[in-house]
Amino acid sequence: MRFDENADLDTSSVDDLRGSGGRGGGGVGGRVAVGGGGLGIIGLILYFVISALGGGGTGGGGGFALPSSGLTGLQSGQQADGSAIAQSCQTGADANTRLDCEVVAVVNSLNGYWSDVFARSGQTYSVPRINFFSGSVNTGGCGSATSDVGPFYCPADQEVYIDLSFFEELETRFGAQGGPYARAYVIAHEYGHHVQNLLGTSRRVQAGDSGPTSGSVRLELQADCYAGAWGNHATQVPTSTGRPLITDVTQADVAAALDTASRIGDDYIQSNLGGGRVNESQFTHGSSAQREKWYSTGYQSGNPAQCDTFARGVSLG
């Protein structure tokens, strides 16, 4: 996947918290929303480990209590600094050479795509903020989290949070192929949760819901499908200049995204990273095969309307 080197990037929806230690009052522990897409990929490992030890559990907001780890936030009155990233990430050329700028470019494309989809259906899309953090973060509405939780969306404040080192973890620990388009899939999945929040779909899932046909699994598979729908149109979404920001998506790119989907299925994580035994009653994100299926459904159709994993009688795969 490549970006138009002459395209302008918009960093107005990006907050860079790296080096700041987080945000807010600096509380420790806290909860990360699960039903809203919150529990990240590596967070699943923690979930299974905690469950196996008889701890954790779910509670308000559908999360599990994260272990206290000395998280610190910004001091009172301090603000996230967006000036550095605004200076560094100005064009598509920057996106082709810098990881943070690459994510900015993907975010620009996602916001352009979903704004158009919502407008075509007579609705208004609200642009979410995305926060880059390092090590730990204190969110506005979902408590505190460490990088172990992976990328997550907080529906309470309509913001996405990501430690960019997660992408290296995905390749080294999970064995994923990686690459720009595979990374874009991860971001697009979180933006899928934002779409679900705007449409009210997230409210259909109860806290602590799990199992192979649970509302939590349906929510995650739909977010995968939404990511695929964007991917279908990625090379067509224009920037303010009217030219597409993403210029090239190859079959190898799509294969890399499917490879990533296969390595973040509940069964793969349980069997390879969570103790070796698959327990479907603990599924919250769907199996590897399901995740591949629903990403492919979105990608092949290019139509978010084909992503209704909550429809009566629908086969989740």
TrEMBL record:
Any single Gene Ontology cellular-component annotation: membrane
Places the protein is found: Membrane
Record key words, sorted: Membrane, Transmembrane, Transmembrane helix
Domain of life: Bacteria
Segments for region (Disordered): 1-25
InterPro entries: Uncharacterised_pept_Zn_put
Membrane topology: Single-pass membrane protein
Protein name per UniProt: Membrane protein
Organism of origin: Pseudonocardia sulfidoxydans NBRC 16205
